[in-house]
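Q: I'm writing up a methods section and want to include an example of the input and output format. Could you take the sequence below and give the corresponding predicted structure tokens, formatted cleanly so I can copy it straight into the document?
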Amino acid sequence: MKTTLIWIGALVVGAILGLLGLGWLDEVMNFVATVYTRLFQLLAVPTIVLAVITTFATFGSKGSGKIFGHTLTYTLLTTFAAAAVGAILYVLIAPGNLPVETISNSTQSSDISPQTSYIDHIVSIIPNNIVKPFLDGNVLSLLLLAFAIGFGLSKLPESENKAVVVKGLLGLQELLFLLIRGLIWTLPLGIVAFAAQLSAQVSAGVVADSIGKYVLVVLGGNVIQFFVVLPLFLLARGLNPIHVFSKMTPAVLMALFTKSSAATLPVTMDTAENRLGIRKNVARFVLPICTTINMNGCAAFILVTSLFVMQQGGTPITLSTILLWILISVISAIGNAGVPMGCYFLTLSLMSGIGAPIAVLGIILPIYTIIDMVETAENVWSDSCVSAMVDKDLQ
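A: Here is the clean output for your methods example:
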């Protein structure tokens, strides 16, 4: 709560500074915002790649029996549903383009142009050189490599060599988490700069309209997934969604305020076992896995934000674009476990990888804290639903 208040305060201060109309001050704010954007890019790609590898590498050690199969099936179904809801709302609400001045700091447009077929684009994602994707910053190729390496590690027999590789990857991941925590600690300064940039724009009314519709799509998708889609999944398995939600409310509320599924996990497990009555062997197996890979809110955020940012760069939002990015958002969300502000960092790295105008993400950043709260609550609610459905299936 303290962090949220600080971020809101930084947003207000930045907005006031931007309205002052001082040229030298605007230049300073632009410099600070550029520095933060570059730092995000620096840490985003390696962090996400390591997160995907370590997530998939643990599949083998966490078991592959009937209970894991049920958990993975429900995770994929609910995550696809969340992304699909976001896509439908995006088409219906249709957020507009931001003024050119707002994204003038990033003039790149997406590599996916109308002249490039999606077959060619998909082929370009498949790497033919293990080093080139790292040098080019091709995030989609890196995600594919990360998935292959992680899945391969999960299938390797347990040995000293495998343990060394996995421990080394986990150690690198912890180091990057430390750097990210340091960056987040200084983030109020970045929020001041991004908010000042935004409020200094002449066409603030257009910005507010476009961003307002974007936020409506993101939060509207979360609300529909929370109150309609997930309860329908429960009803389909013969469970009462009102009963399940009433029992799991403590965990959902804690997730809302902590903005961390992992931090909420002990409360989620205790609530599932002692209030909802899920068997301990199910809750203690399913919920840690769900906390790692079941990211409904993240999938919807990645999809909607990617479409919005690509649209600003001139990419036409066609049906094939939406279907491709639904798939990318689901796979990315599953590999997003344990990363602070993971959805934001992952989306930034994806957009950077295809040359979309990432300055738009600087405009989104000041309101991300609210989106993050709602998404985390939805993720924990989805974890609860999955565990309840798996428990019912195995009875």
